[in-house]
Amino acid sequence: MKKRQLSPARRQPERRTSGADLLALLVVGLTVALAACNITAPSDPTPEPAGTLTVRFLDVGQGDAILIRSPEGKTLLVDGGRSTTRMAEHMQKYSIDKIDLMVATHADADHIAGLVEAAKAKPTYFINNGLAGTTQTWDRLVTALKDAGSTFQKANNQVFNLGSARVSIIAPPAGMGGDQNENSVGVRVDFGKFHALMTGDAEKPETTAWLSQNRPEIEGPIQVYKSIHHGAANGDHQAWLTRVRPQNVVISVGSNTYGHPTQTALDLYAANGVNIYRTDELGTVTFTGKADGTYKVNTER
Ligand SMILES: [Zn+2]
């Protein structure tokens, strides 16, 4: 896996080690070793990061847009909904003036149209599934991102540091053909013991392939989970939820003619004891998580 720093770490100057330095190192090493013998109470080697991670499912009507902020104010936007006007309102309301990482899970309009507006926040990195869209909306997005100076990357299981949170990109498995939904990019965010997972509109063939790959990124429990494909019947299924073990599911949905969310999906979540939040009923849904795994939920309505 490749790991990238959104803010690159400063490189230490190279230094040669002399004989005198080696002697000094030996003395220091011996002192540390002796001191270690006296330690009785084990200390936690990696203290949990402070602050909270915010995962906000923006109410964009029928579509997806998830805004994630690290305690340090680093920003990840996963999809942007279908409306530039709606996205402009959210950008103002939540002060989105810089995006560090933007992910388009796939190139359908209900996921990328709002990203054209969000490109004004000059994303440092833009990640997509590698399948170019065939619409004017897609062309507009590419132009906006080029103007913003964004670095384009195809989803390749990259890992990013978003401040003290970690973002894992889950690349579509090979052999999914040319369908946009079945080539959805997955995103997992880990902040200590607080975990979020979203996989766009991935349909059963894609999630089944991820299951057979035994990917660590899909292992639950997951506190914050996005319903696949707005609660369509071809999205979430039992074998997948058994692995993911979501505690809360957010269905990002608006008025639509597809029958989203389906009773099949709602029954599946209920049978698995998952708390259900719908953006069409509750507006924007926000989770605020701490590194110890505890969290709070707020809804707009
Ligand atoms: Zn969709």
TrEMBL record:
- The identity of this protein, by name, is ComEC/Rec2 family competence protein
Q: What Pfam families does the database record attribute to this sequence?
A: Lactamase_B
Q: Where is the Metallo-beta-lactamase domain?
A: 62-229
Please tell me the species this chain comes from: Deinococcus antarcticus
